[in-house]
Amino acid sequence: MATILQKMVTRGFHGTFFIRKRMKLRIWNLIALSLMAAFAASVRAEDFHFRHEHVLGTSLHLAISCDNQAQASTIEQRVLQEIDRLNSVLSRWDEHSEFTAWQAGPKSSISRDLATVLKRADDWRSATSLAFDVRAEAVSQLWKNAARQGHAPSDPQRQQLAIQLRTAPYAFKQDGTVQRSDKLPISLDGLAKGYILDQVCELVQREYPDTNDFLINIGGDLRKLGDQPLEVAIENPSNTSEGAKPLQTFIVSQPIAMATSGNYRRFLNVGDRRVSHIVDPRTCLPAELTCSVTVVSASAIDADALATSVSVLGPEEGLALIERLDNTECCVVNASGEIVTSSGWPLGAIQANTRQLVAKEDEPQPEYGLFVDFTIQRAGGGRYRRPYVAMWLEDAEGFPVRTEILWLQKEQPGPRWHRDLTRWYRNDRLRRSVEDLDLIETISGATRGPGEYKAHFDGTDNLDLPLAKGKYTLCLEVAREHGTYQLIRETIQWGDKPIAEKKLKGNVEVGAMSYRFVPQPSTDKVAQ
Q: Keyword annotations for this protein (predicted)?
């Protein structure tokens, strides 16, 4: 079979990924797809994709290359069991987890999993000269508490905490116990997810050795097994709209781990100042030398820890650390938008086809068009199937001139659930009869975890032609398996007059929605 490459876009702190297949014209910039990666087709195996929400508080995507659906489903269930097992050990959100009990109680013996993560955290604390510390949560809480009062923490408060953080957080005893040194809160969020990815991959290799290729993506942290090619792209932090051009792409044809950390999606408002949610435990100040950091490494736990560490250390000191490490590369977008990379980026001595797509000065934040913000509600309970979402513009005759977002599930051998998006599907059948462009057959992905999303309509239609001035209807359609169906429609005037931000009423699936319109400058050519 012919090789099919697909594209993965890393997201900020949670590192969410978007996948877009190559399409005719600019269709990859048409559809925003999340938490999706794929492998090439194989003459000996099929590719099976599984997606779940509310896994470690985010979204999970598995891509499994094996002989049949039954085997893939067995692997999927075994992976979910392992994730649950490790979450019961490492989670700080589970009051019954082993980590929670250890943090709250006296010194005690701990499991191999918890001991391994604590030891690796201690290793990185030493290797980064205290820039990585599992007690950074104490600094975050200090800033959050002060922010509620409208100001930054005082210098004496910061200095006192910084002095406490100079001592080791815990000590490993000869009897196998790990004794805490203080009562400051500890969080393993900086590397626990990476450890879980590594352990899942070890399980697949050990229990299912005939699996050709395997990929696991949890909230943007990634581990890939096998040699089938995968095209990876890094999100441009200066333009985070769904479907925006990525910062850089490269093709991966070997096992890797990758993690991204950034401050452009999560931040803290302190008075009239916006500060990074990533903090420096050495100074107890926000880490603001970088905007985005992506690390490629042999293990996910190290990529996870290093993405945070380089964010704290900054480009110069952080990349100097990367250069001292084997099998590790890094791409940094500094605070001014400049891209700086390690000498072997992205894949060291392994040749990679790398393309620089955009830089901050090349593609600034879009200045005109229709800007839409919306949130997807989180379903109650535990794991659940994600909702399917479409956002598009209809002209006065109801013809879908531009689809900006399409989040579906696609199961082998063909798409599924697109008919649940009843209005989009009806209109798409009409559109296909005119444009002869099959959107469904060229996509393979699904929405990322519930949260805040942005969309941008730039003034062109599905065929990349300028939209005529006039009335259009903005449509957002959401369907959830075993859940509800919702449709929001809003008439807008695409013309020369701006539209101030307008908030729309949400529903059980869409928590909030707003839009604003900025007309294209009159000096530019617009279809009449």
A: FAD, Flavoprotein, Magnesium, Metal-binding, Transferase
